[in-house]
# Entry
Amino acid sequence: MGYRKQTKVSAEFNMSSLTDIIFLLLIFFMLTSSLVSPTAINLKLPSSSKTKATSSQEPIKVSVDEKQRMSIDGSSVAEMELRTKLGNKIRKDGRNPEDITVILDIHEQAEAQALVTVVDILNDYGVKMILATKLSN
# Structure
């Protein structure tokens, strides 16, 4: 008897194991993305209205230069004293902190941590912030 061995290679590809892996990866990324908490700063975007709002109070200007030196309205202040000096300036007139506007003038060479420090302090007081930008020619 002449039995032959069957040596044909099957050209089929089983996709079930590949779909199992894809679904497991999908579930993994969905679970891990829900556990990650963003560490972003909550900024209020500017809005506009047809009536021109005028403020009777001058805004407070906080500056940080390229060497991380901070100043409030032109007077130099150490980083450790920034919170107390800003608090005194904000509470000076007995105004509502929501009515006070602070202009942030951060040099482009300054570290991002300096901006985060100032924004965190101002968020604690609940004042409005405006980020000053450089005009491009």
